[in-house]
Structure formats: C-alpha cells, structure tokens
Amino acid sequence: xxxxxxxxxxxxxxxxxxxxxxxxxxxxxxxxxxxxxxxxxxxxxxxxxxxxxxxxxxxxxxxxxxxxxxxxxxxxxxxxxxxxxxxxxxxxxxxxxxxxxxxxxxxxxxxxxxxxxxxxxxxxxxxxxxxxxxxxxxxxxxxxxxxxxxxxxxxxxxxxxxxxxxxxxxxxxxxxxxxxxxxxxxxxxxxxxxxxxxxxxxxxxxxxxxxxxxxxxxxxxxxxxxxxxxxxxxxxxxxxxxxxxxxxxxxxxxxxxxxxxxxxxxxxxxxxxxxxxxxxxxxxxxxxxxxxxxxxxxxxxxxxxxxxxxxxxxxxxxxxxxxxxxxxxxxxxxxxxxxxxxx
Length: 343
What we know:
Number of helices: 0
Shape: elongated
Number of strands: 27
Oligomer: single chain
Order of helices and strands: EEEEEEEEEEEEEEEEEEEEEEEEEEE
Helix content: under 10%
Distance between the termini: 48 Å
C-alpha cells in the first residue's frame, strides 16, 4: 500500500560557519529591475551589480567572483532565501572594482526579497552546502516577485510503513499548484539520499515522465536516511522536498522476575526497534476482561532499550504489556503480553 507523504521543504538558508570575510568590502549594490513576474519552473534573470573590493593580492584571488544574498521580507512561499549566480569582476581591480551578473529568480520566491549581504565566491552548485563565511552585511535594494503556477512536490511511498531490513520505492510527483496538473514539458530533478540532499551532486538526475512523476527504488539502508527531490535552479534549487520514511513500532519487553510479593517493584526491560530515542513507552496492566491501563512510563534510550517498573497489586497472575504510542515516524506498537504472579 502506498502513502502520500509531505516532508520538509528543502529551501532553507545554508549554515554559515564563520564571521564575515574581513577582506571583503561592499560600497554599493544595484539591480536592473525591482519587480519581476515568474511562472512555473522558469527562472527570470535580474541584472545585479556590486561595487566594492577584496583586499587580497594573492594570485588565486585575482578573478574571485562575488555572490549576492537575498532573504524574504514579505509574502509567503517555500523559498525564504536564495543567492545570485557567481558575479565576475567586470571593471577595476580586485581591491577596487565592479562585479556584475544576474540573480536567477524562481516562481517560489513569490513575495518580497531584500539583498542583505555579499560573500566571496564561487558559490556551491548545491543550495545547502555550508559557506566559509557569513555574508558581509549590506542594506541593498528590494526585489518584488510575483510568482504564478508554483511547483508542488509530493511523494508516495510503497509500502506505506517500511519494515526493518526491507527496501522501498517512492513515486515523486511535481505538479502545478494552481491547476493540480503536470507541467507541459518534462524536466530533470535531483533525487538524493542523506548528504546528497545537502552537500554534493552525486545524486541521480532523472527526467520526469509526461505526468510529472519519477519513481525510484531505494535500498534498505536508505530507510533511516533523509531522501529528497530537488528541482535544480541556477545556482539555488527552485523547490525541494525531503523526508524520512515511516517505520513500524516493534516492541519487546521482559520482566526481571515472573513472580514477586504484592507491592514489590519489578523492573521490566525492553527494546523498541529503530531506535526511536526519546520517545515514551507505557507499561499497561489489564483491568477486568479487556481494559488496559497505564501504570508506569519510561523513555527509550539511544540504544533502543528502556526500563519500566511493574508492581503487583494483588495475589495471582497479572497480565502486563508495553504500549508504544506513535512517535515521529514510528508507528504505534504493542509488546506481547507477559505475566507477573503476585504472591
């Protein structure tokens, strides 16, 4: 059985690793236009020019490009941050010159964006690779974007809940959010696993079908990693979706003793496959013929192990079980019933 999945939109800003580059100084930034309309999977190139300098005489920095950074200040949309293409120096010197090129604006930038900083390039081809420095701050111009027919990405996983040790398949679909229909042309997408979603270009780049779908079979090892689809832009992805597949809740539990005096605490040790560390488990006792009630609570450790405490309330054979509530991507699970005899 397949399941439709909505996951994390992979369009966040890259994580900077250091303070702004002290060698970079910016004195002015201009754009060729302050408003633009973009439809579907298209990109509209907006000219941008930076005046400033890079205080270096190193041979490797002679042709250093610059990159302009923009962030959302108004409107709603999956894209909150994007960057220009690498801007080559077009006049002057490295220490005092002008850099010019374009910002390729996608429809997912629907709203208002403002240029807030510049970094030295070149910029990575992947949108989430960490940068060597924070952008050098600059209060630059704003860009108003009217986005139409924005892409919507969905994923259908088979089987819906992926068993441990099993592979799975995902049918990804990209449709026009305004019409619910596929786009008129086929296009390439990036399918990645784990670091491929964030840092490099080693993922697959299949062509979508005429219906806007692409299906990929994943190995069992991918079930515990982020999987993703990205729609490549230049250089920033137009849109992306990533998630980790659902897992069953498989619980086992064994009491340290199968009999104890009434009122004595009996540790019950168990395990939840995954592991879903930090999730709760409930020790339940059977009341009457069919009513299970919680009598103790535990937390799954990083090893997948947990310990809860039973306390026989009366003499006789008492049924217990451990109940694992659905937690994150892990589904509800219940252990086999076990018994402790109260003496």
